Amino acid sequence: MAVAAGVGYGANGEGYVRIALVENEQRIRQAARNIKRYLKSMGVNVPSGNEV
Question: Which of 43, 41, 42, 40 is nearest to 52 (CA)?
Fold first, then answer.
C-alpha cells in the first residue's frame, strides 16, 4: 500500500489522498472495507456504495 498527498496530482487533488493498492481484487476490496470502517469509527462521513 502506498499513500500520497492528492495535491501532488494537481490543484484539484488538494484535500484528497491517493492510495495505491497493488494486490489481487479480493484483497483490495477487503482493504477498502477496512479503510471505510476505520474512517467511520473516526467520525468521517464516508460515501456508501461503490465510491469507496
Answer: 40
Query: How large is the average pLDDT for residues 1-20?
Result: 86
User: Residue 6 corresponds to which cell in the numbers above?
Assistant: 492528492
- Residues 44 and 41: their CA atoms lie apart, in Å, by 7
pTM for this predicted structure: 0.55
Q: Is the dihedral of CA 30, 34, 36, 37 positive or negative?
A: positive
Question: Residue ranges of the domains in the chain?
Answer: 24-52
Confirm if 52 and 36 have CB atoms less than 8 A apart.
Answer: yes
